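Minutes, project huddle
Topic: does the predicted pose make sense with adenosine-5'-diphosphate bound?
PN asked that the exact inputs be recorded in the minutes so nobody has to dig through chat later. Recorded below.
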Amino acid sequence: MSFERLRRVPRTVGFRLAVWSSAFFVASTLVSFGLAYVLVSSSLQQSERASIQMELDELAARYRSGGLPGLAQELALQERLGTTEPFLVRVVDLGNRAAAFVAAPHRWAGFDLDRLDSAQRAPDQEWVLLPARHGDKVLEVTSFRLPDGVILQVGKTTGGRDEVLERFRATAAGVLIPLLVLSLGGGLLLAFWALRPIRHIIQTVRAIEAGAMHARVPTRPTGDELDELGRLFNGMLDRIATLIAGMRDALDRVAHDLRTPVTRIRGVAEVALRADQGPDASRQALADCVEESDQLLTLLNTLMDISEAETGALRLRLKRVNLSDLVEDAVELYRHVAEEKRIVVSTAAGPDLWLTADRSRLRQVLANLLDNAIKYTAPGGRVEVTAQKQAGTVLISVRDTGIGLTPDEVPRIWDRLYRGDQSRSERGLGLGLSLVRAVVQAHGGQSNVSSAIGVGSTFTISFPLSSVGIG
Ligand code: ADP
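Predicted holo structure (tokens), as shared on screen:
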């Protein structure tokens, strides 16, 4: 790994995830240890205090029955038998405010026992903590006021308890440090493994940036979210590749289709310039040039209309449009052409069908479909235009008994400048259906075709009732 990549590691998501997860893990372990520590320490304290209390009760009973000598005797017996732990036993005479008795005083030399005299002011059974003069030992003492006015004090150092707690702390530290290393390492490994698909996506984008347009994200059959992201990403790349190929194709076709009329204009102009013709011939040449230019302009304008409709930039003048009027209008436009070809055009549209749409654009769509239907139907054929409501949509269909389409042609007829082999003899630019699809989509609708060779085709455009506000 290069130095630069190493330097970037702390900024990576994987590293940050690992640090955060181990921080949470260590924090929760610390809280658990802390709780356990508090519990152990308080239960140790409770049990030690209970044992001090028991000793106090026992000695108080002995004092009551045998006085100070009885108490001393009991302590000597205990000492000899070695049955109990070393307790501080002290008797304070309230009369002269001084210790009347201290058992084994050498044991408690490290403590300033005189300070315990103030304990006589503390209520019975209160606990007094007396720190050692040097070191961190603490003496825990409780006292009991006996009936003859003396105070019996019994205590014990917290050394044993502190030792246990010290061992507990050492163990906790010994466990926590490897735990921290383990959780950080584990977190890093986990993050590195989990983010592998993201790294694949980054590598793919880098490869594409470097020009390898066919690079794709490797996917695994795990079906998890990251795998799905990879698949979606690949799907998106495929779609973009198809679109780019389509655009390149369309550009090639446009270039090809522009070359013919431009070459013709140039030819006509060149001949007119070269030959010494009269004004009539020159006028004719100019008229030819104008005609060719008009065709070129129509081609360019239609191409621009299609792009605008596809990108949503086409301005639609939305109005409520009565569909039976619209159908009649469009059919009227082609009545003459149809009659010339002896094609019967019939219509069927309910009178109360309304669409909120751009009337002239919709008429253009119907005109294109009708134009094709008449163009690609042999003389004597039939064309039928219908408009109806169906399952939440409004359907307009143009059915003909024409030449039909091969299954291969069906998906391609909507492409810009596509012209079927059989249609070469007919006039046309190959833009009619592209415009139909783009305008229908701009209205939120869909366009479809079903066709059979030699039987005829049915072109259908549909608009959802809700989105176009049909009344
Ligand atoms: P044009 O009609 O100018 O060639 P279109 O975009 O309108 O362009 O149509 C594209 C192609 O689809 C046509 O060249 C033709 O091959 C085919 N086509 C369109 N309409 C019909 C139809 N009604 N019957 C058979 N083929 C059709």
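Observations noted during the meeting:
- The longest helix spans residues 13-81.
- Residues 368, 372-373, 376, 400, 402-405, 413, 418-420, 423, 428-434, 457 surround adenosine-5'-diphosphate (CB under 6 Å).
No decisions taken; revisit at the next huddle.
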